[in-house]
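Comment thread on ticket #2218

A.B. wrote:
> Attaching the input chain for the structure job we discussed in standup.
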Amino acid sequence: MTLTRLVIFFADPERPPEVLETVDGEILRYDVMADDEASSWAPARTLLIVPGADVVARWLDLPAASDAQARSAAGFMLEETLAGPASDHHVAVGPAGDGKRLVAVVDTARLRAWLDRAAALGVAPAIVTPDHLSLPESLDGQPLGVRFGTLLAVRGHELALSGEPELLGAVLGERAPVAANPLEAAALLARGALSPAVNLLQGDYAPGTGRAPRRGWRRAAILAALLLISPLVVSLAQLARNTASAAALERQADKRAVAMAPAARGQKSPARFVLGQIEQRRTANRFLDTAAAFFRIVQASGAVRMDTLVYGADGALRTTVSYLNYSDLDGLKAAAREAGLDLTDEATVTEGGKISSDLIIRKAP
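C.D. wrote:
> Ran it. Output below, let me know if you need it in another format.
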């Protein structure tokens, strides 16, 4: 039997961590953590649960490769959706399987802060995972919900996110789960701890590697780009070194494209068809990325409430927000610009002391 200890950090930095101890899924203790108690702990497999609102989870079609190559490929695929330079983000991947692969992205400064706080408490985690991915997938396929402080963590099939319950209810609609009661929540955490979906301690943060800053991102992005369209681009590169015939190059590329994707057969340019399919996969997640970024901005504002959210065929989000002062909207727009979003005010109505505005949300050019 192995003792597993979960140390839970909350989004509110003033709230003390909580500790859940379990053996093979059986709960032994669930309590608030004292500042100096870690020094007297018995040896255990330690998991640090961090706020999922700060960790983006995606399921991507990644090529079969090593974890390092998968992280580079995922970072390249998500590069356009990340706010700030790619070097400011840490990418971790879940275990490889038959389908899409789980990818978790977190700001490196935020991850360092969590690890520093854990070290100050005397906690040396073997695994760090966000709260929404600390939950197991439900047995009946319906999303599960557990409260972590004021926020709700939701886990479903290829779904993991945390936020204010009302906001998640507006986003998920009928799929929004009811928060588990405390006993059920503890049982879910104990079950999820048996096989965490992802460990953020990868790459530069893997045990024994230290925390050296990431270097060579541009080279990694180029290698990841090649990996994404391998073996097509690899074949093109090899062929380019062996022949100067452009016609032969195109024929070989088309053959490789058909071999990679049988659906390309019969296309006028199979190679271009395959590259187009790759681009479609990259853009498929832009709605969730843009929506997640906007949700964080609304949540941080504290003064603006989102009433509706609609995804348009043109790729833009349309939302209606309500607030009390015009300065609240100005602050929301300023925060959006910093996050790489462009907010366009279509219409504003004042009624009964409440102001409502219809906004269009796009990624900033």
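A.B. wrote:
> Thanks. Noting for the ticket: The longest strand covers residues 341-351.
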